[in-house]
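re: that chain from earlier
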Amino acid sequence: MGTASDLFDLADAPLKLYTRKASQPGSSSSLDISLPGVRTQHRTRDAGAGEEPNRVDEEATLREADRLLITRYAPASVLVDEALNILQFRGETGPYLEHASGPPSLNLHHVARPELLIEIMPAVREARETGREALRSGLSVNGLRDVSIEVIPLRRSTSERGYLILFEDGSHRAENRRMQPPAATLSASEQERRIAQLERESTATRDYLQSALQEHEAVKEELKSAHEEVLSANEEYQSTNEELETAKEELQSANEELTTTNDELASRNRELSLLNTELNKARQISEHARSYAEVIVETVREPLLVLDGELRVLRANQAFYTDFKTKPANVEGHIIYDLGDGQWNTPLLRERLLAVLARNEPMDAHAMSRSVAAIGERMLSLNARKIRSDGERAELILLAIDDVTEQHAASDLLRNDARRKDEFLAMLAHELRTPLAPIAHAIHLLRLVDVEPQSVRLHSMIERQTQRLARLVGDLLDLARISRGQIELRREKVDLGSILGHAVDASRLRFEQRNHALSVKLPERPVYVDGDPVRLEQIVLNLLENSAKYTEPGGRISLRLEHRNGEAIISLRDNGIGLAPEMLEGIFELFTQVDGSLARSDGGLGIGLNLVRRVLDMHGGRIEAHSAGLGQGTEFVVHLPASYPSRSSVSPAASPAVPIPASAVAARGRRVLIVDDNEDSADSMMMLALEWGHEVAVANDGPGALKVALTFQPDVALIDIGLPGMNGYEVARRMREDSAGRNLRLMALTGYGRDEDIRLARAAGFDDHLIKPADIDEVRRLLASATVAGVSL
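^ sequence. v structure.
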């Protein structure tokens, strides 16, 4: 019934018995109309004509209906089936039929007017039960007061029946119909007839309503039964669906597990295939790499050894056999310490190789000096790396041996050359500075006794040139030491303003000589830097000397210090000869000088600015040169990292020497021992010390100095380092060993000015280290301070 439920009606719900429904409008079922006294003829056709028998029967029924209607003056009518579904409309049925609201329907229950439906239904039942025509008349509907209904049963070719329902309006009959008299004129018999009619209508209405109620109750029971069956069926369906869903989920889970298992198996198969492929490739690559490594090992010119975990030689390349004049039988399979005459058996090499194997510490440039029987004394450099295990072989060590005998000899030669050059430079400085000392001393003494203007002018000229020559020698030696990295900065927190003040005081005579107008602008607050005060003052002195040299007499020079953006900035500007644009950077190169008569007339080696830049590099600073062009002046700008030290960490730059009055010096005269092999230097210093009121003794060599010191008992000793027979360091040590020399102030007065020389002097016991030609005021101040203190500083 499920797919054809629209063709059947439920006859017995508990037994689930169904009956076929009446044909719907438009169906192919035919009607077999059999009326009393009427013979129905069926016209048949040849089977080949292609027309179905049901179709012919339907057309015959329609023609018979037309004939009957014509005989009755064609009243309005409808042709319905057993279920009261309208099969066809005839005539004007509008006054009797009306479509109800809702979905469209052709069932007579839905389209017949209610006042007619209560008469139609009993008439249909009557016609169905009796098989004869059923008539209902005297009805009122839609303004019509004399409407009659006639139901005529029709037989169809099947067991079902059809019904022709005729509607006739008696109030509009033709002229042969009689006018109904008013109710007031009705006779008693007519009134009784009408009352009887009304009673019949009332009875019919009551029967219809009762029948409708019964049908309603039956339908209600059927619906209730159907609802219970539907609920039961739904519960069964739900249970079945749940079981099916559970089974479906179980099947789906099983399918997923099977799919996952299949995927895993497929994936593992692919992985195994890839692993096999990669293993084959790796094996090929390993074989290729091994072959490649063997070729490299044999091609390398340096001897190579491959050692196992017990430091046993697994193999050696051909270079090892060639260089060490041996054979594979004497090498392979032997522990490295047993090779040759045991020259490889050293504790340090054993320790380094074990560290390579145990902790993977690389061994680089391990130097060994060994005597090999076949090739003699050799200097070797060993490098070793660990070769990790690859599963087939244990961990190994690759040892490379480099014969660096020739390189070592060349390095020794270079070091010896550098040492000899340093010694030469030191000796050169000593030899150049030594004659400058007596010259400076002599000029100072001549100034004291010869006060004529012409003599004073000549003395000043000699003194300036002497100082210039001493500074040139110092810069040249400093530049050489910086190039070799032999200068060590003695950093401290200093006020850069004090450095500038001392440099200006030292250069003032130079500016006065050339009649330069020098202006200095310092900030209100100190500007601190972390640097070597001596080297920083050297930077400023060189810049001031450069400006004085390249600015014409009468020119203007300005020096400015400021603190900006965490930097100490020194700016030195002049209105001198200026620089061409291409020279702004090249001016700092070594031995570079600006062309021009002014520049060349004042000489110079072109090392000052290069020295400035190198010393600034050591301090983390930099220098820039700016100029608008030739004849437009030059500006040098120095940048140094500024520092913010605490008050206790600041070391102010040394203050300029304050002249000591002659009367005060004479009152505090001390015994001074002068030791110098240069008689001029010794005699000139002796005359200065006597002039300052001191008692002086002189010695020209080391042993003589020790003898004089025993009898003279000096308070201060000025000792040259380069002495015959015994150098100044040894003289100082011998004097310090004597009990009388513990309070003796020792001052080294020498031409050796390297940092190494200063360290040696401090180690030997010297309190001060002065470089020839020493500043005379500084020497006088030190002698005076020693006199005041009475002990060495």
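The radius of gyration is 69 Å.
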